[in-house]
Amino acid sequence: MASSCRRPEHSAPPDVFYNEEEAKKYSQNSRMIEIQTQMSERAVELLSLPEGQPCFLLDVGCGSGLSGDYLSEEGHYWVGVDISTAMLDVALDREVEGDLVLGDMGHGMPFRPGTFDGCVSISALQWLCNADKRTHSPPKRLYTFFSTLYSCLSRGSRAVFQLYPENSEQLELITTQAMKAGFSGGMVVDYPNSAKAKKFFLCLFAGVAGVLPKGLGSETSDKAVPNQVQYSGQRCRFRNMKGKSLKKGRDWILEKKERRRRQGREVRADTKYTGRKRRPHF
Amino acid sequence: MKLLTHNMLTSHVKGVTKGYPLLIKATEVKVNEVEFNPQFVSRMIPKLEWGALVQAAEELGHRQDLPGELVQDYEKNEDFLKKVHRVLLEVEVIEGCLQCPESGREFPISKGIPNMLLNEDEV
Fold it and tell me: Which residue of A46, A122, A279, B2 has the fewest C-beta atoms within 10 A of its own C-beta?
């Protein structure tokens, strides 16, 4: 999660960044806890596990066990892997029900084939894209991770990763290595039009072709994230106002309300009074 | 580390072909009380390496009356499921290490967490 800098993976490797101080936030900062729990809920939803059946799941980058707690709440059993001892210590303090393993994603998953019914990972995958040591090669580490993950998942199960991709090249690197490892699937983007609410979930299917779920808050999300920006033409609409102020006018107000509706906010209905000229004393 | 997890763990060191099952050398073992879920236990039984489970339980001295062979029709046999549940989810290794059967490489266990981090030459 971002602290004072924008992207934590640019400041230090994960086992250094997630020290005791950072780990404490995961047990004390209520906003952080809320966000992580929400993302875990959505990830489990995307996993589409069979109803009413307790499953055996893998939590990659389990950290302090916030996502794991949600898995336990849903009646599942899980094993969590994380690289930071400080974060795992917080998980121990919080007495999480899952088993914890200290490990590096990029070294591969140390489990027998067909072990797990599914895999979730919240805010962890982007850490694999940075070379933290001279010997690291991100594509190789990604491939090692995905290929061992593919093998330790049972056929027909899914892996859902919530991540914060830095740019489209990173997204491509990740998806390429996942496909190379044998997975099918793609990206599901929730609220693609909101800078704040936008969330990326990489949904991978192991051994069976599946239908990619739709992202929330978007009508046209039945395919992967488009490489081009949508709506770019509409942004230039108000360039030729001919001397009049850009941020006034009924058209601009209606456009802004429509934008906010797309972001999923509550907006009053458009009526004949919307953007009408008010009396001079306004 | 519960025995359910141990049953699934292998050594993923480069070049090792038979990194399973890892031998447990435990210095501290704990037995917890965990809620019995017969549905989960009977679903997990086909995924287990039964021999490895019995061996691990023996190594910890917690085998008790767990049979050496898998019982037929275990789904309805609640007694048997309870025994499996105890061994899988209630016995926990807190301190010790896991040893690779092929290379002898040891993975330490501390506070119940096995350390599976590899060195650069093992990847």
Answer: A279
